Amino acid sequence: MTDTLAIIPAAIDTYRQPVVYMHEDCHICRSEGFAAQTRIRIDLGSRWLIATLNVVMRGGWLNVHAAALSASAWEALGASEGDRARFSHPEPPASTSAIRAKAYDGRLNEADFAGIVRDTLENRLSDLELAAFFAACAGERMDTRETVSLTRAMQAAGATLVWGGRAILDKHCVGGLPGNRTTPIVVAIVAAAGHLIPKTSSRAITSPAGTADTMEVMAPVALDTAALRRVVEAEGGCIVWGGGIHLSPADDHFIRIEHVLDFDSTGQLVASILSKKAAVGATRVLIDIPVGPTAKVRSAHAARVLGSMLISVAEAIGLHVELHRSDGSAPVGRGIGPVLEAMDVLAVLRRNADAPADLRTRAIDLAGKLLDMASGSGLRSGRDLAQSLLDSGAAEAKFMAICAAQGGFREPAPAFQSTEITAPTAGKVAAFNNRLIARVAKLAGAPRQKSAGVRLLVRSGDRVEAGEPLYEIHAETPGSSNMRAAMRRASQIS
């Protein structure tokens, strides 16, 4: 068969971008005119996908009679070594006309956005085409009507959980604060109060840890929809990875491109948040917006614009949303990285004397507001209830029950290697740069190395003497000199 090749796994991680590797002398490349970056349709039995071609040159690692697939492509096709796949040119993506229209400041409707979402999920759109779409929508170039349409299109592309008309609570933080791991504590408190809170969370893409990464060091998070429902029906809450249950599935593709571009569209951020909340079946949602000079939201004006859009779109899709503006000037807690953040969460739940007070206070504030939203009475007594559930140990017991229902609790283990970074001179801690602290944690190995990261030893306002420790860098591999080099490289990044 002239249009088929044997396929092998390339064992290359390209995240969610399917990639196919072919030899430059491959007969299919020659006959079809395939060249580097060509979009190629690959059919294997009843499954198919569209991948981007990378060409392996003569003398390289690939045989001329085989094609290699990246890890994501191999998994998506359900391939086995020795399979033969068919390679052809795909139909051009219909949604490119909508992207061109948006680039010229046109207004898109729900059908336009649905086409872009569909072509994204089928990998019909290249990264360049998606980047053009995000650039056309950057800043505030999407109006409320368009944002509602995109939100609905993103939700409709995946599953939506239905809970029989019951009130379903949820919370979300727009991000930008290292260590701000309030979610496991809030879920435990709210579930201990007898409410339903099925929390789906993301893994980190460019941050030192996502909520799913932190939770995963304590309990399994890769649950399917049926397992999620069993946990919530049994315990009232869960903290699971959203990528495993097909809720607003285009969002991860969008986030991958947005992080490379390093800018956000307000409309796309709102659609990302609210499509996931609608898909999980939430009815009442609290959204935390940390504001600070090195947080994701950097000014009061930006917070007002984002908050107004969130409320307007939520009303249009039938969600009750309330906002909580918080201090985003510094990291929260002491640990930054999956294990270190999990240790902070457990210290708060276990009421340890040395538990980080800022993480405890934030979690109680958020849980209290959610409990007020749940009561619907207009009374503001939720914070007292949240604090009593935490102080009594009820929240800890509920958290352990949730972990058990998700597959069993694991005690997080600290890293084998650490090194202290000390103050070069005496002085007062005036401010933190959230982005640089996060960069140090990532250079140390987080989040792939679960116990890697940064442990803060000072807070804003503290006075330190020369030589006193400021923070520790934790790593799973030896070599404190390497960790110090990582710290020095991070300090040069603005």
TrEMBL record:
<feature type="domain" description="Pyrimidine nucleoside phosphorylase C-terminal">
    <location>
        <begin position="428"/>
        <end position="494"/>
    </location>
</feature>
<dbReference type="Pfam" id="PF00591">
    <property type="entry name" value="Glycos_transf_3"/>
</dbReference>
<dbReference type="InterPro" id="IPR036320">
    <property type="entry name" value="Glycosyl_Trfase_fam3_N_dom_sf"/>
</dbReference>
<dbReference type="InterPro" id="IPR017459">
    <property type="entry name" value="Glycosyl_Trfase_fam3_N_dom"/>
</dbReference>
<dbReference type="InterPro" id="IPR028579">
    <property type="entry name" value="Thym_Pase_Put"/>
</dbReference>
<comment type="similarity">
    <text>Belongs to the thymidine/pyrimidine-nucleoside phosphorylase family. Type 2 subfamily.</text>
</comment>
<keyword id="KW-0808">Transferase</keyword>
<dbReference type="InterPro" id="IPR035902">
    <property type="entry name" value="Nuc_phospho_transferase"/>
</dbReference>
<dbReference type="InterPro" id="IPR013466">
    <property type="entry name" value="Thymidine/AMP_Pase"/>
</dbReference>
<dbReference type="InterPro" id="IPR036566">
    <property type="entry name" value="PYNP-like_C_sf"/>
</dbReference>
<dbReference type="InterPro" id="IPR000053">
    <property type="entry name" value="Thymidine/pyrmidine_PPase"/>
</dbReference>
<dbReference type="InterPro" id="IPR000312">
    <property type="entry name" value="Glycosyl_Trfase_fam3"/>
</dbReference>
<keyword id="KW-0328">Glycosyltransferase</keyword>
<dbReference type="Pfam" id="PF07831">
    <property type="entry name" value="PYNP_C"/>
</dbReference>
<protein>
    <recommendedName>
        <fullName>Putative thymidine phosphorylase</fullName>
        <ecNumber>2.4.2.4</ecNumber>
    </recommendedName>
</protein>
<dbReference type="Pfam" id="PF02885">
    <property type="entry name" value="Glycos_trans_3N"/>
</dbReference>
<dbReference type="InterPro" id="IPR017872">
    <property type="entry name" value="Pyrmidine_PPase_CS"/>
</dbReference>
<dbReference type="InterPro" id="IPR013102">
    <property type="entry name" value="PYNP_C"/>
</dbReference>
